[in-house]
Design goal:
This protein is α+β, with helices and mostly antiparallel strands. The chain contains five helices and five strands, in the order ααβαββαββα. Strands 2-3-5 form a three-stranded antiparallel β-sheet. A hairpin with a 7-residue loop joins strand 2 and strand 3.
Length: 186
Protein backbone atom coordinates (compact mmCIF):
# COMPACT_ATOMS: atom_id res chain seq x y z
CA UNK A 1 0.00 0.00 0.00
CA UNK A 2 1.59 3.31 -1.03
CA UNK A 3 2.11 5.98 1.59
CA UNK A 4 -0.39 8.79 1.63
CA UNK A 5 1.12 12.16 0.74
CA UNK A 6 -0.12 15.25 2.55
CA UNK A 7 0.65 18.64 1.06
CA UNK A 8 1.05 21.42 3.61
CA UNK A 9 0.42 24.95 2.42
CA UNK A 10 2.82 27.62 3.66
CA UNK A 11 1.09 30.57 5.25
CA UNK A 12 1.24 33.82 3.31
CA UNK A 13 3.50 36.45 4.89
CA UNK A 14 2.30 40.02 5.12
CA UNK A 15 4.48 43.03 4.31
CA UNK A 16 6.00 43.39 7.84
CA UNK A 17 6.79 39.69 8.05
CA UNK A 18 8.52 39.80 4.66
CA UNK A 19 10.91 42.62 5.59
CA UNK A 20 11.82 41.13 9.06
CA UNK A 21 12.48 44.60 10.51
CA UNK A 22 9.97 44.40 13.39
CA UNK A 23 11.49 41.07 14.53
CA UNK A 24 15.03 42.46 14.28
CA UNK A 25 14.08 45.47 16.42
CA UNK A 26 12.26 43.21 18.87
CA UNK A 27 15.40 41.07 19.28
CA UNK A 28 17.56 44.16 19.77
CA UNK A 29 15.08 45.48 22.34
CA UNK A 30 15.20 42.26 24.37
CA UNK A 31 19.03 42.13 24.31
CA UNK A 32 19.44 45.81 25.19
CA UNK A 33 16.88 45.66 28.00
CA UNK A 34 18.71 42.70 29.61
CA UNK A 35 22.07 44.47 29.22
CA UNK A 36 20.91 47.77 30.78
CA UNK A 37 19.03 45.97 33.56
CA UNK A 38 22.24 44.11 34.55
CA UNK A 39 24.28 47.33 34.40
CA UNK A 40 21.73 49.04 36.65
CA UNK A 41 21.56 46.18 39.18
CA UNK A 42 25.36 45.76 39.35
CA UNK A 43 25.75 49.52 39.90
CA UNK A 44 23.11 49.38 42.64
CA UNK A 45 24.97 46.46 44.28
CA UNK A 46 28.18 48.54 44.29
CA UNK A 47 26.29 51.29 46.09
CA UNK A 48 24.88 48.80 48.61
CA UNK A 49 21.35 48.87 47.22
CA UNK A 50 19.00 46.18 45.88
CA UNK A 51 20.96 43.30 47.45
CA UNK A 52 17.92 41.03 47.15
CA UNK A 53 17.80 41.39 43.34
CA UNK A 54 20.15 39.04 41.47
CA UNK A 55 22.09 40.20 38.43
CA UNK A 56 23.57 38.02 35.72
CA UNK A 57 27.14 36.91 36.36
CA UNK A 58 29.65 35.56 33.87
CA UNK A 59 31.74 32.66 35.15
CA UNK A 60 35.29 32.76 33.79
CA UNK A 61 35.67 29.05 32.99
CA UNK A 62 38.10 27.23 33.34
CA UNK A 63 39.83 29.54 35.84
CA UNK A 64 36.59 29.84 37.80
CA UNK A 65 34.45 26.75 38.35
CA UNK A 66 30.71 26.84 38.83
CA UNK A 67 29.63 25.21 42.11
CA UNK A 68 27.93 21.89 41.44
CA UNK A 69 25.69 19.65 43.43
CA UNK A 70 27.50 17.05 45.59
CA UNK A 71 25.17 14.47 43.98
CA UNK A 72 26.62 15.15 40.53
CA UNK A 73 28.31 12.08 39.01
CA UNK A 74 31.90 13.06 38.36
CA UNK A 75 35.10 11.11 37.80
CA UNK A 76 35.36 7.73 39.53
CA UNK A 77 37.51 6.80 42.50
CA UNK A 78 38.16 3.63 44.45
CA UNK A 79 37.72 3.78 48.21
CA UNK A 80 40.41 2.36 50.49
CA UNK A 81 40.63 0.33 53.68
CA UNK A 82 42.55 1.62 56.69
CA UNK A 83 45.72 -0.09 55.42
CA UNK A 84 45.49 1.73 52.07
CA UNK A 85 44.41 -1.29 50.02
CA UNK A 86 41.32 -0.95 47.82
CA UNK A 87 37.98 -1.97 49.32
CA UNK A 88 37.15 -3.80 46.10
CA UNK A 89 36.73 -7.58 46.55
CA UNK A 90 36.72 -8.33 42.80
CA UNK A 91 33.13 -9.53 42.76
CA UNK A 92 32.85 -8.25 39.16
CA UNK A 93 29.41 -6.73 39.81
CA UNK A 94 30.46 -3.32 38.42
CA UNK A 95 32.12 -4.89 35.40
CA UNK A 96 29.03 -6.99 34.71
CA UNK A 97 26.46 -4.23 35.12
CA UNK A 98 28.38 -1.63 33.08
CA UNK A 99 26.44 -1.02 29.84
CA UNK A 100 29.50 0.54 28.17
CA UNK A 101 31.88 -2.32 29.16
CA UNK A 102 34.50 0.16 30.32
CA UNK A 103 35.62 -1.61 33.53
CA UNK A 104 38.23 -4.39 33.44
CA UNK A 105 39.12 -6.26 36.64
CA UNK A 106 41.66 -9.02 37.16
CA UNK A 107 41.05 -10.78 40.48
CA UNK A 108 43.75 -12.02 42.79
CA UNK A 109 44.21 -13.28 46.35
CA UNK A 110 44.25 -10.80 49.22
CA UNK A 111 47.02 -11.28 51.86
CA UNK A 112 44.42 -10.93 54.63
CA UNK A 113 42.59 -14.30 55.05
CA UNK A 114 39.43 -12.45 56.13
CA UNK A 115 39.18 -10.83 52.68
CA UNK A 116 38.35 -13.33 49.98
CA UNK A 117 39.73 -11.57 46.90
CA UNK A 118 41.28 -8.30 45.82
CA UNK A 119 41.87 -6.81 42.38
CA UNK A 120 45.28 -7.42 40.84
CA UNK A 121 44.35 -4.75 38.33
CA UNK A 122 41.34 -2.43 38.05
CA UNK A 123 41.16 -0.44 34.82
CA UNK A 124 38.45 2.03 33.86
CA UNK A 125 38.24 3.51 30.37
CA UNK A 126 36.73 6.99 30.64
CA UNK A 127 36.58 7.18 26.85
CA UNK A 128 33.84 4.55 26.92
CA UNK A 129 32.11 5.46 30.21
CA UNK A 130 28.63 6.96 29.93
CA UNK A 131 28.53 8.09 33.61
CA UNK A 132 25.35 6.13 34.29
CA UNK A 133 26.44 5.30 37.85
CA UNK A 134 25.35 1.64 37.64
CA UNK A 135 28.81 0.56 38.87
CA UNK A 136 28.39 2.62 42.04
CA UNK A 137 24.91 1.25 42.69
CA UNK A 138 25.91 -2.37 42.04
CA UNK A 139 28.97 -2.41 44.30
CA UNK A 140 28.19 -4.31 47.55
CA UNK A 141 31.36 -3.01 49.28
CA UNK A 142 30.98 0.72 48.46
CA UNK A 143 34.35 0.41 46.75
CA UNK A 144 33.69 2.67 43.78
CA UNK A 145 32.27 6.16 43.92
CA UNK A 146 31.71 9.03 41.51
CA UNK A 147 32.13 11.89 43.98
CA UNK A 148 35.54 13.38 43.15
CA UNK A 149 33.97 16.60 41.76
CA UNK A 150 36.52 16.34 38.94
CA UNK A 151 34.78 17.46 35.75
CA UNK A 152 37.65 17.81 33.34
CA UNK A 153 38.13 14.51 31.59
CA UNK A 154 39.64 15.80 28.37
CA UNK A 155 42.84 14.18 27.16
CA UNK A 156 45.06 14.28 24.10
CA UNK A 157 44.84 10.55 23.41
CA UNK A 158 42.64 7.57 24.20
CA UNK A 159 45.42 6.02 26.30
CA UNK A 160 45.35 8.99 28.68
CA UNK A 161 41.66 8.34 29.34
CA UNK A 162 42.36 4.84 30.67
CA UNK A 163 42.70 4.97 34.46
CA UNK A 164 44.53 2.24 36.34
CA UNK A 165 44.07 1.28 39.97
CA UNK A 166 46.64 3.78 41.31
CA UNK A 167 44.96 6.68 39.49
CA UNK A 168 41.56 5.55 40.75
CA UNK A 169 42.82 5.27 44.34
CA UNK A 170 44.48 8.71 44.20
CA UNK A 171 42.51 10.89 41.77
CA UNK A 172 44.42 14.03 40.84
CA UNK A 173 42.45 17.17 41.74
CA UNK A 174 43.47 18.94 38.53
CA UNK A 175 41.48 16.55 36.40
CA UNK A 176 42.95 13.90 34.16
CA UNK A 177 46.33 12.50 35.11
CA UNK A 178 48.84 14.31 32.92
CA UNK A 179 50.93 11.47 31.56
CA UNK A 180 52.41 13.40 28.65
CA UNK A 181 51.99 16.88 27.29
CA UNK A 182 53.37 17.19 23.79
CA UNK A 183 55.91 14.51 24.52
CA UNK A 184 56.98 15.95 27.92
CA UNK A 185 56.18 14.42 31.30
CA UNK A 186 54.27 16.79 33.54
Amino acid sequence: MPAKTVTVQRPELNFWEKIYLPEIFRGLWITASKFWRNIFVHTAHRLGLMKSVEAAVTIQYPEEMRPTSPRLRTRHRLTQREDGSPRCVSCMMCETVCPAHCIYIVAGEHPDPNVEKAPKSFVLDLGKCVYCGFCVEACPEDAIRMDTQIHTIAAYSREEMILDMQELLNPSPGGMPQKTFYGKKS
